[in-house]
Amino acid sequence: MDPTNHRLVVGREALPDRGSIGQTTAMVGVRRTLSMVSDTATSWQWTVIRRPGDSRAQLSSSTTKNPTFTPDKAGRYQFSVRASRSNVMSITTVTLGATASIRHRAAGR
Length: 109
What we know:
The chain is mainly beta and 109 residues long. It has a single domain (25-107), classed as Sandwich (Immunoglobulin-like), CATH 2.60.40. 6% of the residues lie in helices and 42% in strands. It has one helix spanning 102-107; strands at 18-21, 25-27, 32-37, 43-50, 68-69, 75-85, 88-99. The longest helix has 6 residues, at 102-107. The model has no long low-confidence stretch (mean pLDDT 88).
């Protein structure tokens, strides 16, 4: 019971599964693989929740354990993953910072 407002708070068990990415930075045009730490979930729902305004980059799949992503613009990308098994789940976010490639920088001079 929450003593400040007299409501019951119900907690749920969470899976230990967490979203991850090997390197948190990448150059534009370089494919990265998103993955899961732990291996107890049986389904996954990945979503791009933040990207540079003019980006059109998409995940290779939103429902696989290890989708790939290739940033198309420099900036910050953020992903949410909901991992679940039966009625137990976890929700985590993963952030990727993309920098302009050498080829893109040279063209912009």
